[in-house]
Amino acid sequence: MPILEVENLSVSFKQYKRGLIQETSNVISSLNVSIEKGEILAVVGASGSGKSLLAHAILGILPENARMGGVIKYAGEKLTPLRQSELRGTEIALIPQSVNFLDPLMRVGAQVRTSAKKGDKAAAQKEVFERYHLKSNVEHMYPFQLSGGMARRTLLSTAMVSGASVIIADEPTPGLDPVVIAEALQSFREFADKGCAVMLITHDIESALTIADKIAVFYAGTTVEIAPVENFQGNGEALRHPYTKALWRALPQNDFIPIQGTSPHPSHLPQGCLFAPRCEMSSADCRNTRPDMRTLRNGMVRCIHAT
């Protein structure tokens, strides 16, 4: 049984536009993912596709003007706001994209020690700082005294000592040097191999492929494909969705062919398939009806033409 399940998640925002006129933006619609113990699920997609919002929805830290639909389950139990607050930072740990999540009034060593729930907290903090090449004096610093790379390594450290069963890493490696990136990715793999579930949210497909078991591809706020990592090879012939194939071919080491067009704005989503305006396989059915997610060849896809 998956330890974390997201079923038909939707997230919208109500905003005031031109005085008292309200406008609703549907940023996420019908998003589905699941992850099992011992597994790394990499979530990839363009900026604005809903990756970070997924993490915030799971943890219950969406903004006040957000409205959420669908069901999120942890260990088979529906996550209510109360349950989310109980699990946040204990059973489910977040490595956030923004370094502003660090407490500006607390020394970073103390912040990491606070995240450790068991054992010798001081020893755990020192060990993880050594692993991520943070010198011993760093633990006495405040966040404003850290470089961007040091702050990001501190955020990595807080999750690594938490003992959480699920780690959600939201773009954890930008600004880090290659050695620390390799260390962080290896840490995620080690945690998964010990039974932890890891959700790695990233733009970097190449890095994700080195450690992930499955890749979930997001487009315009919905899941278009979930595929085993071994499908990402060759010309992408084992992949299912036209967007995933185009994304794979756009990488420099492959055909380096750019994807024509742009992702739709949340306030102007197409009626049917969200990728239809950019898809070479688009038909009248694609433009009129939004396809459901279905099982295909040991993966999942949201496309009526996928075979």
UniProtKB/TrEMBL annotation:
GO terms for biological process: peptide transport. It catalyses: Ni(2+)(out) + ATP + H2O = Ni(2+)(in) + ADP + phosphate + H(+). PROSITE patterns: ABC_TRANSPORTER_2 (PS50893). Coiled coil: none annotated. It holds the Pfam family ABC_tran. It is a peripheral membrane protein. Residues 4-245 form the ABC transporter domain. InterPro entries: AAA+_ATPase, ABC_Ni/Peptide_Import, ABC_transporter-like_ATP-bd, Oligopep_ABC_C, P-loop_NTPase. It is found in: Cell membrane. One of its GO terms (molecular function) is ATP binding. Keywords: ATP-binding, Cell membrane, Ion transport, Membrane, Nickel, Nickel transport, Nucleotide-binding, Translocase, Transport. Signal peptide: none annotated. Its EC number is 7.2.2.11. GO terms for cellular component: plasma membrane. Belongs to the ABC transporter superfamily. The complex is composed of two ATP-binding proteins (NikD and NikE), two transmembrane proteins (NikB and NikC) and a solute-binding protein (NikA). This is Nickel import system ATP-binding protein NikD.
